[in-house]
Structure formats: structure tokens, C-alpha cells
Fold this protein.
Amino acid sequence: MQTSPDRHEYPAHWEADVVLRDGGTARIRPITVDDAERLVSFYEQVSDESKYYRFFAPYPRLSAKDVHRFTHHDFVDRVGLAATVGGEFIATVRYDRIGADGTPASAPADEAEVAFLVQDAHQGRGVASALLEHIGAVARERGIRRFAAEVLPANTKMIKVFTDAGYTQKRSFEDGVVRLEFDLEPTDRSLAVQYAREHRAEARSVQRLLAPGSVAVIGAGRTPGGVGRSVLANIRDAGFTGRLYAVNKALPEEQKDLDGVPAHRSVRDIDGPVDLAVVAVPAEHVPEVVTECGEHGVQGLVVVSAGYAESGTEGRERQRALVRQARTYGMRIIGPNAFGIINTSPRVRLNASLAPETPRPGRIGLFAQSGAIGIALLSRLHRRGGGVTGVTGVSTFVSSGNRADVSGNDVLQYWYEDPDTDVVLMYLESIGNPRKFTRLARRTAAAKPLVVVQGARHGAAPQGHAVRATRLPHTTVSALLRQAGVIRVDTITELVDAGLLLARQPLPAGPRVAILGNSESLGLLTYDACLAEGLRPHPPQDLTTAASAADFHTALSRALADDRCDAVVVTAIPAVGEGSVADAALAGALRSAVAAAPAKPVLVVHVELGGLAEALSAAASTAPQTDAGNPPRTRPESPQVTLSPTPPGEPPEDSHLIPAYPAAERAVRALAQAVAYAQWRRDAADPGRVPEYEDIDEKGAATLIDGLLARGQGLTLGPEETCDLLGHYGIHVHRALPAPTPDAAAEAARTLGYPVALKATAPHLRHRADLGGVRLDLADEDQLRRSYTELTELFGAPEELRPVVQRMAPRGVDVVVRAVIDPAAGAVLSFGLAGAASQLLGDTAHRLIPVTDKEATSLVRSIRTAPLLFGWRGSAPADTGALEELLLRVSRLVDDHPEVVAVTLEPVVVASHGLSVLGASVRLAPPPARDDLGPRTLPAY
């Protein structure tokens, strides 16, 4: 692009890809002098009515003067943006800065007139709304705070674009024209509108991929075998309800089908639309395929071809080019290097993957960034015997491969409202946008369980993944995910275990667990496992090995009816000499008891009970229940079952679904996760509030911060500046006076008043009382001088020790409070006890800022050493109310002033009444950019 000859360089950072309301994509970029022909061509395709609405008069064509005006911008006072698809304009927007009299002006004027024009063929796709978000962000960057727009009353679509944006606005009517004025500062409502539009657009973009009306497999080989031919066969054999095509440019011209599927040499030759293309050609031929698909109007691509970012630097550049090319045509991509996608809905029945058989329909949505892990999860979800028993169905499956475009965030947007999905299971090797993921996860988890296992936890992300840098350790990220309602597990076995329980069992109302079974030992193991997981088990009820199916039914019914019980774990071992008949009877008895009292979760722990596992498998499917008059499904006799497709039109079984586990620890761990998630759901219904404190001086802090940052881009504040800034938020730090000599120490002590503490603040001794660098309770000058001599003899000269004198604080529990702004995850508040032991154990809790009063309360109680704050072993309870208030004040400081990028309060002594902040440090820097507050964009490539 040619650089503007006016005042500013071409602003490349304004370029962005966006997802539109219908799920397609468009590119938004500044209009330049090179766009004259595109602008004229665009205008010629706009209807006379739309032109009239734009110019308030018939305006059949643009003059040369118009073209010059609309393509020459200074990118400050005059800016134009275009939305493009296939390199051609589909919509434009521009603003012109104006003064108080409405004439063209320059800064410091902060108002601008804005006007849109959208091609009629693209109206209704949300293009104008997306352009308004982006031109608003550009205007704010250039110092414009308010937009004005004049619209004809009949142009109701454009009036709706402005009024629905959520900005604070004024509306007037004069001379037959509606005049709208609105502030550009984001509001809670404008952000809510933006997030809602983002959700609908991204969900629709995934829905177009998962429920296409027609599919073309490009690269289907002429001979059996190979990736493309396999995917073609899988789609055909799954009974895809739409139109299916095979494409291979090497096919002879006379060949019209491949394995009974219509075949073509190019997607261009297909007579009719193609919604989805599965690309299985060598990487070097993919650009040609993408061009053909784009020109034919294909809506999305699943690229199973390898040879991209996973293969190194050259492949990474190839991957970037692939994404840019696809987005040029408005297409979204799953992959490259993807395993594929599956949709088991009877309305679709799509298996566009390398899985040779389609999983049975069910209620679990499954996302895996790894194809190998994806197929392992599919297999495990459907395995019977050995592991978790029972057949569990899948609603949709997405294996994203290198996750170059469509990510877990996009699929979460889809699953949130998908009526066919009740539980979401995700295997993630990287989280490209943690801030957005936690926002979406919190919303999803409030409606349906979200279970996540993370791979690559202790190393770099896979080569194929573009991941934002984060300074947070994995444990912190995991804690933040749990705060968002995510059920975090460590293995794919735990992922499946939790999914089985959550898919069809109700959530427990609390942690009280009844245990019953025919083995005392197995009951005791279950009891111990419950205690280890923080549950509250009742003493196991031993039915003895002579227990019959009727005995199990009676005991389970009694436990389910007990108001003191929230969940039941049934343990069972095989009866000697009895076979599958007894196993089936036991399974039937358990299902019958659950049917009579379905409000509590029931789990079964079985040991070497192949028959029971087989019988219970009828109770482990997540498929929708059928009418009672439908015949039951017949089942294979073998307990080891491979994936098998559901025949079209066959109804799922009607049964009460009981998950069974081969080990007590696995069952209890899944139950504990369900208990914690249920508690989170209850807490999320009333998240608390961010309290207001009358003594907080937000404006004074802002003035101080601006003055300090004027010195440089980033700095750690000195002691006086730190105390001053924290004081604006009601956080008072105990004075620490420097003591470079014994006489200075004595003078400092006289100033502060005895008793005092003498501390070495050298980096290697700071906050390390265990090393002997602190002397406490010095009652007079003699003790102070002796301690000063001891420190210098032990650790070196005063200039090395940097000693300070501080007045003694009341005794209490030493804690540490930290806040940091991470470029990927956002602002994080951390809390733990001070000392080496807590550091070694990693006993620190975290919450995303802003923190509510309820979150502050839970933060204090969530560390393992929290009992020390509550009177452990007869000690005086600490003032946790004062501690929670301190946490809330630090949260407010960082939330109000993103320039505060790090705060550390260490140590904070929490006494029986009140607390004392003995040490503090604050770092300031220009705040990192927050893309969640800007206009909607896809990740840049």
C-alpha cells in the first residue's frame, strides 16, 4: 500500500480481521490513495436507495473530486476504513474532525462526523456494527471523544446501528434529519453489546463448519488409502445428510464419481454451493486450493494437510500465509494439521475426520488440540470394561491441530448455546488468549460443566501454536481457571471420569457422601479417598458378601432418601460362583433405586465385574432418552467394544445413567470435582460486590502516577513515593528509617519510639528472618547498638546490609499480598503466608482483579495454611476482616490504575485486631494494551 502523502504514516496496526454476524469474516483496513479503483467499483454496486441515504440526494456516481477526497486521508483529522472480502470493498466508514461550529477542524477539537456506506448484498451481516467499533477505537486513539451522525429518518437500519451500540448518546430531529451524538468512551453497556455480538458471530462461524449443507473433500486419492480418500469414506459411511463431493485434479476427465461420490477435478466444477472443504493435499498445493475455494464461495476449511508451523520456521510462514489467504475470502480454518471434526446430530451426521468410525450421539462436546489425544479420548469415552465402563456419546468433536484460526475460544462460544451439548471436555496444549478464555469459561461454566486438562504444562507450547507470552506459572493459570468455574484435571483419564459423572448425573448439593457395598475393605478405601479429597463421608455400610440385588436396592433407596446425604458411592465385588445373570440383576436394582430418587448423584466402584460393567453400560450413555414404547438397543456380549456408528433413525436407550469406575480413588476424585463445581455454581449466582471506600483518593493517585511516569517508561518507586501512592488508597506502611551507622540507628529509634526492629534490607537478606538478618523487640539503645554490631559482624559492612529501623508492630501472622498485571491473563491478585515453607510448598492463592468481597473472603481461606489465621492449636485468631479489606484495596488500586503493573506488600502482620504493612514496593509502567476493551478482532497473523 502507498503511504499517505499527508501528515501521518500508514497506520498498519488498524488492520484487523473480524467475524461477521453470519459467521463469515472480513478484513478492515485504512483506505489509501491506491484504493481509487476499488472505491469506484464498490460504489457502482451500491443501490440508488443506499446512495440516497448516504448523500441525502440522488448520487449515481462519484466524481473525480469525490474519489480524491474519499481516498486521501491524514489518518488524524480525516480517516476512512474499508471492510473487504476477496480484496474488494463491501463497506466503508469515514470520520472528519469538526469544531464547535461544525466546520473542519484539528486537535484539540474532539468531535467528528461519521458516515457509513454498506453494499446492499452485505447489509444485515453486521458489517456496519463492526466498522463502528473500529472507527471508534481509531477516533479515541486520535483524541476524538464524540461522534455526530446525520441520518434520514427512513434509514432505520443505520439508526439502529448507532442506537444499538451501547454508547451514551443524544438524539435530535431538525430539518428532516435525525442527528445522533454519542460519546466514544466504552461503557458497561457498550462492552456488553460488543461481547454479545462477538459471541453470536463466533458461534455462528463454528456452526457453519460443524453443520454444513455440502462438503467437498479436496485431495481424495484415486486409489484406496491415503488421508483424503479415508476422510471421504468416513463422511460417506457416517451417513452425512448433505451433499458430498470428491475433488482431485488428477482425475481423468471422464471419471464422474469416486466410491459412489460425485467427483470433480476442481471445486470450481461443482454445480452448486460448497459450504465446507476438507483439504488433504500436500502443503505446497494448498494455496491454489484455497484460491479455488474462495472464488467458489466456500464458507470454511478443515485443513488436515501437515507441513506447517509444526515443522519449523518455513512451515510457520506457510501457516501465516494460509490464514491470511483464507481470511481474504471470508473463510475460517480448522487446522492446519488437524485430525478433523465430527457432528453426530441426526440432522447432520458428519464425520469429516480420520476417525474410521463415528462415535455414538450423546451430550458431550469434545475439543482437542492434538489429534492423537482426540482419538484416544473418543476411544476411551466409548470403551467398556477395563477403564470407565459404559458407552458415552459425543455431540460434536473438534480437533484443531495447529489452531491457526479456530480455537477453543470459538468452540466455547458455540457450545454455550448448543442445545445438544450438556458437558464440555477440552484438551488444551496452549491458551492463546487467557483473558478471553477465562471470560468465556466463566459464562459457559455457569450453564454447563467445563472440564479441562492441559498438556505442555511444564514446557513451551507446541511449535504449531501461536501463544501470547505470560509470566504466570502454570499453577497460577490453573487457579485462575478454577476461579472461572473450570474443572481442572491433570490427565485424560480424569477428564473422562469427570465427564462421565457430569454428563448424566445431577450435581451434588454438598460434600456429604454415603458409602455402601458388599466389601468392607473396598468401603474403607472409598471412605479414606473421600477424606483425602475433602469430602465428608458417612461410615461405610457393609452389606456383606451375601448381599443380594434386593439388598443393594433397599440400601441405596434408604441412602438416597436420607436428608443427611448428598451423594452415594456403591462399591461392589463379584459374588463367587455367580455369573452375568446376577450382575444384570444388581445393575437393574441400582437403576431402579436411582429412578425412584433421581435428585442425587450415584457412582459405582466395581472390581473385576465384567458382567456388571456391561449391564451398567446401559446406564452410562449420554444419548437423549426415548419414549418407553421404543425397543431397547441390543448390545454386544463382549465387554471390550470399539467405536460403532449409530444406525440412522435408531432411538437411544431409555435408562437411568450410572457411571462405574474400576477404582475408588477415581470415582471419589470425580465426585469431589463435581462437589466443588456445584459449590462454584452456587457462589457464582451471587458473586459479591466491589466495595467503595470513602477514603480512597483515586484522582490524587492518578495525578501522582502521571507525574512519576513523566520521568520515564517504567520505574520502581522509592519508599516515600510508595507510601504516598498506597496512602491514597488507605494502605498505610510502617515507616522504616535508614540506619547507615549505629548513631543513625539510635536516632531513628528515638524518632520512632521503642521497642523497634533492626532489619537488613540487602536483596539476599530481605524478608529472610530465617537467615538472621532481623532483630526484633529491641527495647533500648543498648540492645539496638549490640544488635547492630552483631549484624555487621555476621553479614558485612552497613553499606552491604542496608539496615533500617522500624517500630515494632503487634504480634500476629505474617502474610504476603501481591498484584501483577500479566500481558496475557490480565491483573492478578495473590495471597499467601510469608516464609520459606509457603514458598517451597507453592501455597499461594490467586484471583483475577477486580476482586469482590466474596472473592476476598474465599482467597484468604483457600490456602492450605489458612488454619494459622483462624486460631490453630489455641493461637489467637487473626483479624481476617482487616486482611480482606487490604486485599480489596490493593485490587481497587490496580484496577483503577493499570499503570500500577506490580505491587508487593511483604510482610503484612495480621494481628488479633488490625494489621501492619511493614514492607511495600510498587512498580509503574505504561499499561499493556487490553484487546478485550478494543474492537472485535481475530488474532493477527
